């Protein structure tokens, strides 16, 4: 079973950034990408996002399952946009260049195709950065850096705990699945989808119950150790902000400002090559 949303330790400059720095960069990058339809900017962000993913020394096989899900999501998203709003690009760009007529209201136009390109670019420039944040951020260090910028250590530790136990839940899911299959529960592609969904319920119920038991155990252990009694605490994985962190945050915030400036100078969020 492919691991999802795991911290992957690699010797790269991205890994050396603090968790809070990467969170600020992720938010600034997302705002820059999601608030603009300026195609040259989105294309540049997409190229840069894939380069950063490579610079972090991550491989496609590390996130192959999630990447596959994202490709399916992008395809479905574009298909639904075309089904429910086939003339959105025409209305948006104020021109109509017909390419293929499918019947009824469904005509593929160059304007609609260009709009779909922008939607794909917006996803393609954001998803690698989200994966980059998840795969290169140590949960304990992330909690320490959040606390350092003013977030309560109770909230910081809760976030770190959630990230840290994702691999444990995946491992437990795999163990319960193997146990159910050993008892004769068929979960392969040989059986119908309905039977596989029924078999999945035999896994999810024990998984939820065991997760609740783990939560109660951790909660009791933290309470017995006096967690939350003091206003401040020390961190084992704390890392100071360095010049690389400051440079990264300035760069990403600069991209966000550039996105706003392009919108103002262009007079619209949408880049229109059909004028």
Description:
- It is a single chain.
- This protein is mainly α.
- It folds into two domains: 1-138 and 241-275, no CATH class; 151-236, no CATH class.
- It has helices at 13-16, 19-34, 39-55, 64-84, 88-93, 110-136, 139-148, 153-164, 166-182, 193-224, 243-266; strands at 98-103, 106-109.
- It has a two-stranded antiparallel sheet.
- The longest helix has 32 residues, at 193-224.
Strand content: under 5%
Mean pLDDT: 83
Strand order of the largest sheet: 1-2
As an assembly, this protein is: single chain
Quote the distance from N terminus to C terminus: 50 Å
| Helical residue percent band | 55-70%
Number of strands: 2
Bulk shape: flat
SSE class: mainly alpha
The parts where pLDDT drops under 50 for at least 5 residues are: none
Order of helices and strands: HHHHHEEHHHHHH
Q: Please give the largest β-sheet.
A: 2 strands, antiparallel
What is the alpha-carbon Rg in Å? Answer: 23 Å
Total number of domains: 2
Give me the number of helical elements: 11
